[in-house]
């Protein structure tokens, strides 16, 4: 209990002065101040605040509505009238609420998606100070930037630059690792969620420990760290500390579990669940890093946490100059330079690092932007709907307003009535929308590849947006109606001439046109995405992937020399297999990527003219397996020592980059790979889309290898299942203890378009819902138009018009609105679609059908939506129509 | 005729005599009836009673714990007393002459002193 006499906060007094009538200021504020002091002294600060907030909340409605002349009974009256209006016109209310609910529900779903996509890595402690160090190399006037760096960079940052508090390196698995674990240590698993990291990794990324300390564990080269899910997978229990685990990957080692940590608390660009000590890999005498001085291999990713208050741009510049102090001289000799930049951890998922970063390639940012735009569209359509239905109905209500005005209602009271009706409708719709969003989460996870759970509802952003939707929605959807109707002159409306305002009708039609324009834009957007994917997939890739079986190489290899023998035996045993036409091993298969990003140049050109090229390695028979034609020269022979040392195949783009005019000219010429490795071009291949047609063709160099991560088999197409099974048998015989993993090359390749495919499915579904909302509005408008023109149509019928004439008269207008909407949407779609398509190496040409088909679809939907009411008017007895009081 | 709330408030003012301020009335009403008004809310019916002439107010100088704001003492007027006695006599006349069946059950359900 504190006895200091802190007075009631000033804002509370200010608020009270606002809401209380002046004559009560002294009494109530004085009482409040007195009671506050007393409660604070007797019961403490917390209770006093609780009490204050409770009091304010209870007084607010009492005096607020009193203050603006909305006394309790008047307020109740508004609610009563609003409810009565909702009930009386069930049809319109349902349309109205359904439209709003679907619109808001879809927007909420989209909001969840955006929240998910923008919440990557925001849950690590001190994430504001955490960065990934991206490395950019400039040579020959070209700069290529990526997240990959050499492993000495970490030491330079830690030792030579001020401000780097934590630095940790990560070495990805680049494929899959094989793990032997379990109670007996004989259970075999394949995992791609495996990385080598420095101990300090766990100081930058927050994984709460369940058992053991991950930082301490990784200081020991004989220990690894598992996440909860990995421990459950490999050992069937979280209680795995001390268990033995063998990992076959960049090194072969049997280690012990040193710590188990929780899985991600949120989303992360790092999906690893198994962490092995990086230093053990670097120190392993058999690893490729055994004689790496720290600058040879750029296979590492470096993360850093700065000391609080440091500026990332400054730190990046300081690190650049520290780096150039070490390597500048050597780089200068080949007219190159390097620089570093610090990328905030939270930006990695959305922005990527540039070239070849899988996160950037997933197009996360682009998809998020697209989907946000759709969300806004759907919401606008829903609100326009509401405005349309309310204003058109309000013409019917003009009489009610007239009576209210004539009996003394002020315009502000009419406005209040409409605001409260909007409030009520929006509130009901918001409840339904919440249910839709709740139920739709599972569906969104399937389609968009997100991992949303109920946890997303704990995001304050989501609630903030919901409140904003609600507030904006209420204001937006009640402002226009109340202005239009509130203006009505009682004498005019009471005479029965109220509802004929042509200017309002025109505005309403304008809104409908706009809604259709948005619907058509979204549908044609979906259609264009679909067509572009189709277009990309139809482009001949420059090789044939049909009926090519791709088998992953065995992961568990006890001894490399024995492996070479058993691999050869594996291929030999399948030589006699009639179902296999060709077989080859290679380091990569179509869609899997490249092994090296390296600079290269013609031997006769200066170093400054070097250009970046991509490469992978193939074994004998690869060209035939994938049916890749040679334009000139010969295939490579991996058994020949000279070929292994010097031979390279290039593609046409590389040929042009080297400065050769024709394939024949290129064959036999010498090139330089990297800074000084000589090579000779033995053959030229036509260009091929190794990594999908999304990107333009790159210069590619292909080198021979006897090893490789993939075994490809071209099958003859008969008895494929049997052949696959026999390959599996041979695999089991020659690589015991390994998992036989296979896929067809074209299926693997198709996964490259997963991101576009997701975008297409999302856009399609959202566009269809938008159309549904728009057509709900149209049903209402059609019903209204039909009712209003009922008398007119009846007279026409009496005078001899037939059913077709009536239908044509009534629907003609809607058709016109759709056409206008299409015309409005076309230019916008044209511009946006062109920009999107420019991201692709090979883009489709836009043809008018991408606008015409969606417009036709919308037209059909519009006619069906208006059909029922039009037909009812067209077929009813003209006598009833004329008699009806229009 | 007084409403139930007005009756209770008038009685409270009469009981508190010189101490009939907004806060103390609120506390008294809550202590006796369990009905909770907000600090400001209690002034709404009190003002109504003033406007009907059943209560009068006397201003009293502000104290520091009230941030110097003056407070209002409520005093019951003779009209207020008359209104109370009218309610009382009406209530008691309505209580007399209850049939035995009802008054017996009332007695049974009443706690014995």
Descriptive report:
The complex is a heterodimer of chains A (886) and B (113). Chain A is of the alpha+beta class and 886 residues long. Chain A folds into 4 domains: 10-67, no CATH class; 129-357, no CATH class; 364-537 and 753-883, no CATH class; 548-751, no CATH class. Chain A is 54% helix and 16% strand. In chain A, the strands form 3 sheets. In chain A, strands 1, 2, 3, 4, 5, 6, 7, 8, 9, 10, 11, 12, 13 and 14 form a 14-stranded mixed β-sheet that branches. A 6-stranded mixed beta barrel of chain A has the order 17-18-23-20-22-21. Chain A has a 4-stranded antiparallel β-sheet with strand order 16-24-15-25. With 113 residues, chain B is mainly alpha-helical. Chain B has a single domain, classed as Winged helix-like DNA-binding domain superfamily/Winged helix DNA-binding domain (Arc Repressor Mutant, subunit A, Orthogonal Bundle). Chain B has 5 helices and 2 strands. In chain B, strands 1-2 form a two-stranded antiparallel sheet. In chain B, helix 1 packs across helix 2. Chain B is elongated. Chain A binds chain B through residues 5, 7-8, 13, 16, 20, 24-35, 37-38, 55, 58-59, 62-63, and chain B through 21-23, 38-41, 43-44, 47, 62-63, 65-67, 69-72.
Entry summary:
Helix content of chain A is 54%, strand content 16%.
